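Sorry to interrupt, but I need a hand with the structure work. Please put the record directly below this note.
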Amino acid sequence: MNLGQTKSSASSRRRFLQVSLASFGLGALAPQALAAGADRVVAAAKAGLARAGGRVTHRDVVGVADFARPSGIPRFHLVDMAGGKVETLLVAHGRGSDPEHSGWLRSFSNRPDSLATSQGDYVTGAYYVGQHGRSIRLHGLDSTNSNAEERAIVVHAAWYVGPNMVREHGKLGCSEGCFAVSQSDMPRVLHRLGPGRLLVATKL
């Protein structure tokens, strides 16, 4: 085998490993790490509710998007505040936050036309039917996401989010700043994170 073939083979093995690890997601982590991660997510949800106060009508379920993780790993957490149970799903970030499409969110932005994800606390608004089907409007509660309505930042389903994308590419596609989840997960999100609830976008 020549040097070029050796490099190509090594590159293929690295790529296979990256995709495999991303496909396993949180399941590849030790139980202790999962428990510690869940504790941080629940703490972030509680802190968000304290910040939001009366601006959040329903406090039973809180969404926490942890953009410290790459897009190939589930990082959209639905937190049951009564029982402390955390359900975790895949979610895409905005392409303006990841100009090289590395799968990692590099920066947040609240600027119109940035196509980036905005950091901060949101309250979920009304359901509506748009180009991505049934979706959830979002209202930004902070100076870092105050343009959410102007930018039409919402929660919607997208074809570029799902386990198949992770298996094939090791990462998800990017949104234009919206919280895009898989088409199979969207009914669950609509049911659990309906109007008047908190969604926190952060890096834990």
In short: The two ends are 45 Å apart (CA to CA). Residues 1-29 have pLDDT under 50 and may be disordered. DSSP finds four helices and eight strands in the chain.
